[in-house]
Every structure is written in C-alpha cells, then in structure tokens.
User: Fold these one by one.
Assistant:
Number 1:
Amino acid sequence: MTINQSSKNILTTAAGIPVSDNQNSKTAGERGELLMEDFHLTEKLAHFNRERVPERVVHAKGSGAYGVFTVTGDITHLTKAKLFEQTGKETPVFLRFSTVGGEQGSADTARDPRGFAVKFYTEEGNWDLVGNNTPVFFIRDPLKFPDFIHTQKRDPLTHLKFPTMVWDYWSHAPEALHQVTILFSDRGIPDGYRHMHGFGSHTYSLINAQNERVWVKWHFKTKQGIKNLTPEEAEKLAGTDPDYAQRDLFNAIANKNWPAWQVCIQVMTEQQAHELHYNPFDLTKVWSQKNFPLIEVGELVLNKNPENYFAEVEQAAFAPTNLVPGMGFSPDKVLQARIFSYPDAQRYRIGTNYQQLPVNKPQCPFHHYQRDGAMRFDDNGSKQVNYEPNSFNGPVEDPKYQEAPTPLSGTVGRHPHDNHDDYTQAGDLFRLMNADQKSLLINNIVGSMRDVPLEIQQLQITHFLKADRDYGLRIAKGLGIAV
C-alpha cells in the first residue's frame, strides 16, 4: 500500500456525493437516537453486509497473479489458434492457484490437490485452462463429483473433517487409487505454489487450418524445481502461517523473483486413441511420456501482483467453455460436465454478468447480444438492438470458425465402468518411487486411516494390494491388520 499524506481526495458516497463527517452518525441531539435520513450510515452498513460473495464450493482458498505466455515452440501444424502463430509471440495471462477442499480461511499447507487455472487473454477471446497440480483426478464420471466432494468437506453431525467419510468413499471407488497415491506421496503438500507443476488434466484437442484434429494434454513444468513440505513442516505452518503460499507467491513477484513454467503438450492422433488399450479420455489415467513425449510450446512467467485481492482474485472466474478457434474439447466425461457446471457456478457466485468484470473481460474486441441482469455496469449495449438476425448492422456469425465435426457412435444408456483397470497406473507410480518416498507414502496413508473402522480399512487394503502387493502389505502392517 502506498502512503500519500498529501492526498486531497474528497470522500464521497457511492453516488459521488461528498461526505462531510465519516466519524459521527447523525442523531437527534448529542445523546439522541439515530436518524433514518443518515443515508451515508445505512449505505456503509448495507454494503458491509454484502461484502462477501458466496465462496467457491471447491477451490475457495486461492492466490493469483498476472503474467505473460511466450511461444517458444512451433505447433502451427497442429493448431490454427493465433496465439501460437509465431515463435516469440506474447499473450497476457492471469493465473489462480488454490487448494481444493478447504474453506477460504483454511491453511495453504493442507494435504490437498492444488488448483492451477490459467486465463489467456488472446486476440480471439479468452482461453481458460482450468486444471490442477496433478495429471489425474479421483473420478472418471461427473455423476460422482458431488458425492466425492461431500466426503472432503465436513461431517453433517459434528461439522468436523472426518477421515471415515473420506476412506469409506475411496474404498468403494477404486478408480480414485491413482490420485490417492499422488495425494499421499511427498507431492501431496507442495512448498507454496511456485514449486509445483500444473496440468490441464483433461484431454483437449487442437485443430489446424486443414480442420485436422489431434488430442492433447497440457503440462506446466515449474522452472523453480519441485519442492514439497514434510507433514511436520506443513502442520507447523498451518498454525503459524496459514497463508504461507499466498505470502510466498506475493513476495516473490514483488521482489521480481518471477516464477516461470515451461509449457508442453502431449499429442495423440485420433487413430492412436482408437487403438489404445485403455480409454485416453479417462481422467484417472495418464498418457505414457515414452509413447507420447512432451513437446515444448512456450514459457509462462508471472510478473505482476493484483492490486486488489477481491476484485482480481476472488472475482476471477474460469470455465473450460472458453476455448479459442483452433482448440476443442474431447469425450472426457468430466470435462463435458464442467462445460456446464463451471459457468453455472460463476453465475450463481458473482452474477450473470461475471464475464464483464475487469479480470474476466476479454482484452480483444467482443460483440454479443447479452443484455440486462444484475450488476450490469457498462452501457448494456447502449441503443443497439438486442436480437439477431437484424437489419441494423449488428454482429453476425461467421462460418469460417465452424469446428471440425466429431463422429459419434454407440447406444444411449448409462454404461458401467466394469472393464476399467484402476490398479496398474497406481501400482506403476508406487514402483517408480524410491525407498524414502515409499516410506513417506505408507506413513501418510497409515496415519490418515488409523481411526477408520476396520471393515473400511480392510476393503481399502484390497485395492492397495491389487495395485502392488508390497504397497498393500506395508499399509496393512502399519495398521496392524493381518493379510
């Protein structure tokens, strides 16, 4: 905050009316009752009552910063998106980090996935890549999302976090095992936001000038190096500096120690996806980097802190719906559901006109027929007509932006996931760990499961055993359970 003692700005109401006294309410005499005509008092109190918008259901506690994305690799053969059209081209960005399960006042050092959401302000509109610091997630079907998140929140009876709910759910959802293994590993508690990777997590698509499509996964590789907190360090910081990650990010940028990430993609052709032995659009799976190597695309650097947290971080709104020409979706079921749920959550949280807030507003020309709604603070389209087609030179569609068609096949129904392999990749991850990493993983899981009912422990151990026998046996031993 800049101190300016010579400022001569006059305090006003929100309507611009000068305020003569901001220390004393208007009363009937020195000791008399307040007067209803003191509109300055009622305006201050009424606005104060409404200063908190509903917090995000997930990703409530977060931090953000502005920066720039610079193209360093040529992918024009894969996409016609203009932000990639030449090496060295720069695009402004806003990036919001977050924890997932905790409330706004929760500690930054909780064992929890971290949100990694990037808004690219491109010349063709905003592109939002809304991901996490993990390449996979706990579910592959969005119908399970509300139930899963309920287990990460608070017990309806005690209003306390309750490990029994968490492990009860996971014990009945083996697809979560891959993400659970990541969460309880050494990477489960990143050392702030600068020392972790980011991932788009979902499969997306890129479309080139010939309308040819490839499937892609996005990776953001931290240039600061991976650093994680031990459980003991995290617990201490939770009590002494619960805003540790926010403080670290803000101070680093303020001191011009700008954090950076190398941006890469994995690419899979439609034919390769068809021939793959597992579903490449399954959010609980990763793609082999041996078979689908990382391709460098660019560099993302954060170099500017927000000037007002609420306006720029709390009101920042991201949605996977925001894709520019040359990009597309995929059959990932969870991604398809997020296309609806994210904009819907933002309309509930900060209003139907949330995309016109400065932090969310495109930095390129935009033209649409959306009108009215709460908190419409621009000219609301002025005198221009609010329908299309019209005879008054209003904005019109352009067929050249038509997306490449996607073939569909199969029968309509609720198809079970009985044929999915939920264990191999989780086991592969365990086997990749060194001895210290394995020991930390086992200790973290045993500590979390220790007070969970025996039948839930036993069911969950069967999943660990199927992933890797040593994995399951060591957890069973830690819990004192004979296998």
Note: The beta strands are 62-71, 90-99, 114-122, 125-132, 198-199, 204-207, 213-222, 260-269, 295-304, 327-328.
Number 2:
Amino acid sequence: MSSKRKTVVVGLSGGVDSAVAALLLKQQGYDVVGMFMKNWEDDDDEEYCSSRQDLVDVMSIADVLGIDVEVVNFAAEYRERVFAEFLREYQAGRTPNPDVLCNSEIKFKAFLEHALALGADHIATGHYAGVREFDGRYQLLKAEDGTKDQSYFLYRLNQAQLSKTLFPLANLYKRDVRRMAEAAGLHVAAKKDSTGICFIGERPFKDFLARYLPPQKGEIRRLDDGRLLGEHDGLMFHTIGQRKGLHIGGLKEKGQPGGGEHAAWFVAGKDVARNILYVVQGHDHPALFAAALEAEQLSWVAGEAPRTHWVYTAKPRYRSEDAPCEIERLGAEDCEIRFAQPQWALTPGQSVVVYESRVCLGGGVIR
C-alpha cells in the first residue's frame, strides 16, 4: 500500500461473509465504507424478503466496526437488467441463473460505478473467490474453500471490473470466517446463509413465477415412444434432470433404457412450440447424458478467448464437479465444448464455466 490510505466500498448484505470482508480490510489499514443495496421492491415483506432485517444487521455491523454506511436503491436497474432477462429465459423454456447476471449487472456494474463516483479506489464483497494481477492482466481465481467457491457466478467479470475489486475471503474457510466474526463481536457470526433468487430471497418458486408468467398446462410424454403420461402445470416450472413434482406413477414395464419397472421419472426435454414436457425413466437413461454442448453469450475474463483443442475443466452447473473438456469450436458469439466423459442433465439457460487449474477463464450460457 502507498502512504495514502485507500478507500474501499464494501457491499454489506447483512451476512457474516461481507461483514468479515469489511473487518479484514479495516484491519489491513483501508478506509472502509459500507454500502447496502436494495434491489427488490415488488413485495418486500417480512415473510420472504428480509431486506429490512438485513439493513438492521448492516447497521449493527457498521457500529461494531466503526464505519459509515450508505444505502442505495438499484431496484430499477435490477428489474431492467436482471429480472426482465430472468423472465424472458423462463418464457423461452430455459432455466436461467440469475446470480450470474446479478453479479455482472448490479454488484460489479451499478454498485461499482456508484462507488467509483464517490471516490473509492476499490470495491469489495464477501464472495469466496480470488483476484490477482499476472503478466499484465487480472485473473479470477477459485477460492481456497472449494465447498464455498463462487467463481462460477463471477465468470462474466472483465478486466476493468477485476482491477477495482478486492475479495478478502479468497484464502479463508467458512468456519474461520464465522470464528473471526464471533471474535470481533459481530452478532451475525452464526447467521444463516442467504438462499433463493438473488436479492429476492427464498419463497415458493411456482407461486412467485406464476405472478409474472401465466402458466399454461400441457402434456407430459415419454421421450422413448411419445406415450402420454400426464399433464404439467407449465414448462417454466420444470428443468432438465428434474425428478420431483412430476406426479407420474411407475409403469409396470421392463426393458426401458436406463430404468426398471418402477424407476423414477426425470425431465429430459421440452418442446416449447407444442408445450410438451418429455420425460424418461431412470437416472441413468442415455437421453440424460451428453458429451458436448453449445454455449452462447460468451464472456472471457482476459478479454480474449482461450485456445481451442486444449485440455481445460468446465462446470456445466454450479454444483457439478470440474469435468475435463476441450473447446472444439470457438466463434465470436458461440462455441462448442466437448467433455472427456458424458455429462448428466446439461440444461439450456445454465452457465458453463471454463477453468485452467484454479484460474476461471470465463464461459457462456448453454444453448
């Protein structure tokens, strides 16, 4: 650090991770300012959306740390840049990942721009990820705590954004973060992690989505032979690989690929034009596996694409294992990724994120 104290604006959510991020930065000598973002207003009530309690927690954190807090409202930006796209994707029969868009459009765009306008040198968040400068460029890294690593959700960050970003939790484990919070007297040390849709919270998903996209009932058919099995409440409520909520009984027939007479049913495909949901029996049905995928809306952290026909790993969904792969075809707007082993339930709308060891190279949206 230079002799001049640098100012860091920390995005405080009211949770333990961002609280400890602010604590660490203050201990390191930064001039720390907290910022609480309010991004959802449609039904901000106590039952589902906890922003009121989160703000109370933020103020308590700030009081303990001795820092100022600014409250900003990005509800308009969130609705226009994130939620509208979220609804469009579901309407198209895909399964979007709002956290990816929320990070690139709100936390590291609207929030970053606002912080820089205030004169900040950097922003910081409680994400479990890392950033470093290497060979003249900034790299996005996996976190030390592999069980909490969030680089998957950050793959759309660019060089300009990373150059102004600090991730204080990069080398910490969650258990250590909670211990540090407790030692510092932060009452959120044991607070439950937030879940659900980014900035909207956890709520009955079907009811919530149906308020914005009127559901349309349609047929459920078996993919193998087209046999009619039942009725779905709306294609938007179902995703590839889904098992629960289909309300289909077992068929007393043997010899079906991947399953026996009472094997569970899984969503294997959608025909959006005809409003048909296709299902197969058995977790290991061949229709649920694919050795390759096409991705669009590409975003590469370095500002340029990686090499083709080079062994990388990729995560086709957040909780999937890193799978060895090659980028076989790479264009300006889309690419083809082929895996060493077939992957289960590749889902249109989800992101596929490519890594070289611990370095997140970027990725795209599965088409």
Note: Residues 288-366 form a domain with the Elongation Factor Tu (Ef-tu); domain 3 fold (CATH 2.40.30.10).
Number 3:
Amino acid sequence: MNKILFRVLILVSIHANAQNPGYEIYALKYAAVSFTLPLSALVLDAPQKDSMHADFLIWLVKGNNRIVLVDAGFNSDIEDAKDFGVINFLRPDSVLFKLNLQAKDVTDIILTHPHWDHADGVDLFPNSQVWIQKEDYNYCVSGAWQKNGKKDYHKRVARKLLELNIAGRLTLVDGDNKEILPGISVYTGSRHTYNSQYVLVKTGSEKIILASDNAYTYYNVNHLKSAPKDATWDISGYIKAIVRMKTLASDTKFIIPGHDPLVFKNFPAVAEGVARIK
C-alpha cells in the first residue's frame, strides 16, 4: 500500500469516527404505575383483552465527553403522580448511582416534551444544558394558559422551564431533523404535545431512536396505523412519525418506546431497572 493511499484511508477512518461517535445507551426505570391498564386505553386499535403495566423511564446516553439524559422524570411530590398510583419510586437523579454517576455529571438533558412525568425533574441536574423544541416551550409557558389553551401541562413545569431560560440553561431547538450534539439528532412530527420531539443516536454502525411518548408502547411500533387514544394532537401525524422512525433506525428493535416494561426483557439488564440498549 503506497503512503498516499494509506493517509487517505486514515483520514476516512477519522472522519467516520467523528461522524459516528461511540455512545453507550441505557434505559432507566425510576417508577411504575400500580395498576394494570387496558391497552385499548392507550392505543386506538388495541385488542380489548390486552393489558399492560406502565413504567416511567428516562434514558442515558454516555460518550463523546458527555452524559446526556433524554427526559428528566419527575419529583414524587407532584400531585399528578397520585392519580397514577405511582409505586417503586426512586428519584431520577438517584437512579444514576446504578451506573456510578451523579446528578452533577449530567451535561445535557433533551426533553422530548414538557409533560410533568418527563420534565418536572429538570431541577435535579444542576450542571445540565436543557434542549427542547422552541414551539413546544412557547406553548407550554404561554399559549397553554390562555383562555382557549390546551391545559395538559403542569404549572410547576412551566415555571421551571421559564427559570431555566432566564438562567441561560435552555436551548430552543427550532424544527425537525436537527443534529444538536455530535451524533445526536432530534425529529418532530408526532405532535404528542404541541411539537414534541424524539431522539436519534448514532453509535458506531447503529442508529437508535429514543421515541419516548412519540411511541408509547411496542404495540404502537409494531402495528401499522397504531396511535394513542388521547395522547396526540394529530393522530395521522403520530402514525406517520412512527413509520418514519422505521426508516431512520438501523433496526426496528432499536425504536425504544416511552412506557413499555418490555424494554427490560428485550435488552440486557446491567442493574435492577437498568437495561443497556447499546
């Protein structure tokens, strides 16, 4: 091999590694719903006989000198948790101990949407920069509270996001298909909230999608035209977003839903309530 060709191959290798940084990805369970839910309560076309338990999850992406959380969970004193009979609660920052990490280590939090069970915990991670869709943020802190607003947000979450913005710790992502960190991009379209987003992580040759509530369960992922019953502003948009996820992920198994306990059967456990996705 001549020297020029060797140098070209080295440069190509360096470029490929820069474009596809190696990340470790984990699903972390920090609470669960105490009662069984009929799947049809969550999914429009689900069989009436099917039911499920729901877990509350956050996701951790580690690598490239960053510790990134996708969603931040909630604090146990929020009143909405009582309606779900939350059990086995472990504060989201404490879950990190299972991976030998602390709250102060988190560099970034990507909020898929500002519902209480995904965003109330942002104040637990003092050194993080928080990323959220601009339109989702604006509606949560402003439009939702107007006379004709859709008030499916929590006032405490709206205040926390506003304070983060004032403190310079909030980055507003403007639109679809945006690479916000090396190898980490966000996509919109499902309209679970005003403009929710899901996260694609490139790690080596794999592309992993952390869907959060943009695909509630594996049933949503695996069944065509499967949308949540009440949890989207746009049913057709929600379905189209899942179809699109299947073109973006390197394998359907790497589309990770938001509340399905099967995540912990489909991927190897590294600790109780912690599964390694990649």
Note: The first helix runs from residue 3 to 19.
